[in-house]
Amino acid sequence: MSEFNPQNETNQDTSGQEEKKKGWGKEAWEWGKSLLVAFLLALLIRQFAFAIFMVDGQSMVPTLEDKERLVVNKMVYYLHKPEHNDIVVFKYPADPTKDFIKRVIGVPGDKIEIRDYKVFRNGEELSENYIAEPTATNNGVFTVPDGTIFVLGDNRNYSKDSRDPQVGYVPYDAVIGRAEFVWWPFDQFRDI
Where do Polar residues bias regions lie (predicted)? Predict the structure, then answer.
């Protein structure tokens, strides 16, 4: 014969509710930990590995169009210095709150000369199939100092770059990273 004990049933209901509360609390804690780890990883990746930038202006046409979004590799220059033809994002020296994007034409020790609508590096004319039109100005000779790079936009006649004293030679520590690919708009997705 079984006996009915209302006190035991109440205890069972209470312990079931407590278990549900403990289960919910444990699940919320696990979700919270996962979100925190994801947030910290995103911050680390953004700070040290990759960043998203938007092209603002026409200075890199035809290579990059205004309003395209890029993925920039921030780690690459921990491994080596910028190289010729890298497309780099850097802090604008006259206003470090602004970022510029240009092509590396000269590295330390290079002598860059712009004359007769052409660019010469160390006396040799550059083959520049990426520029919008020939360089219209003759800017003289630039010798790239140690720890800096000389940059030009691909749309030379509409680019504020190392020819301008407000930009000048870009110090290595102002370089944010190398542009790797365009991801937006999606129909323009491509390597750079």
Answer: 1-15
